[in-house]
Design brief:
Elements (H helix, E strand, L loop, with lengths): L1 E5 L6 H10 L5 E4 L2 E4 L8 H5 L5 E5 L13 E4 L2 E2 L2 E2 L1 H17 L3 E7 L3 H9 L4 E6 L8 H15 L3 E5 L2 H14 L3 E5 L1 E4 L5 E7 L4 E6 L6 E5 L15 E4 L30 E5 L13 H7 L2 E4 L1 H5 L20 E5 L5 H4 L8 E5 L12 E4 L2 H15 L1
Parallel strand pairs: 5-8, 5-10, 8-9, 9-16, 10-15, 11-15, 17-18, 17-19, 19-20, 20-21
Antiparallel strand pairs: 1-4, 2-3, 6-7, 12-13, 13-14
Helix pairs in contact: 5-6
Amino acid sequence: MGYIHINQGKVTGEIAAELTRICPFDAFEYTKGILSINAACKMCRLCVKKGPFGVCEFREEPVQKIDKTKYRGIAVYIENNKGVAHPVAWELVGKARELSKKTGEPVYALLIGDKLQTLAEAAIAYGADKVFVYEDEAFGNFNVEIHTNVVEAFNKRHHPNIILFGGTAQGRSFAPRVAARLKTGLTADCTALDIRPDGDLLQIRPAFGGNIMAKIHTPNHRPQLATIRYKIFSAPELTEGAGQIIREDTANIETTTNLNLVAVRDKPKTLDISDSEVIVAVGRAFKKQKDLELIRPLVERLHAEVACTRPLVENGWFDPRRQIGLSGRTVKPKLIITLGISGAIQFVEGMKDSDLIISVNQDPACKLFQISHYAIVGDIYEVLPELNRLLDQIL
């Protein structure tokens, strides 16, 4: 890592004004004769290259290498509510199991809550080598401050190499606080993971609006933290398991908190296309919103959920929760029928692992055809009525 150093002895009001003009991100602030750089800085270094000579300097921070042999184990935080684990936890245990084959590390499950015996046994059945159970009435309801204290205690005692969190509402609020407490980094919303033989985690996620896939490598920080979306990986098959359940002492874990729990209310069930087994997905080939009526017979006969691409959400035709892709939901249905979708990488990454993909597009070179099991070349306004007619004969 590096930073921009300002030689304050060379700064004048005129120089500050010139640097402010040069910076495209409005990152300079000049107050009471002191020039500073705020969080808007993107390290483009234009101030170094084009600014007055010697005022701004780019300096590399010395890298302190760590002893990687002191960190071992791929831990998965088992998000749970009232004794029920979020399914993403088991998906992550399965992925941790896969990664561990490359490094020989054990797979840990980290359980925090109250009355966790059943969940601990489930973690063993899904493939955890060790389940570390932090059980206390104070942990019964999720509290980001108290739970962070628990993870800190776990880290100090067991020094895991990696800790994985689900990319859920809870995980997205919890993991950053843990990262800050442990003074390490965090890669959010990963869509793929890999690992090097020395234990360095390769965290892969979309960047720049999904236009590129960034591979993030953090060789000098431990533990390595990442959040991963639901439905990205598959849950492993249940086995009898031969893991070990370890109940940790919680007496010295701080349970005082600045958060006051007023009430616990169950969240009303809302649409989540990630859990749908049959999906009909529509794209920008539909010229008018009223034309979506053409898919109604198909949706009703197949008992399907309707999903869409980003442009249709931006048009105001659909709720964002129905969007598939890197900036939407990841789905893995038994059947997905795509209608008039070109197959941009942003969409494909969100549905490529579906069991059966049937695509309709009038472009023979449609990118989506490359991953489809069945491809129909044709105009959706001609193909849909024919599909509905065939379904009338079959169903």
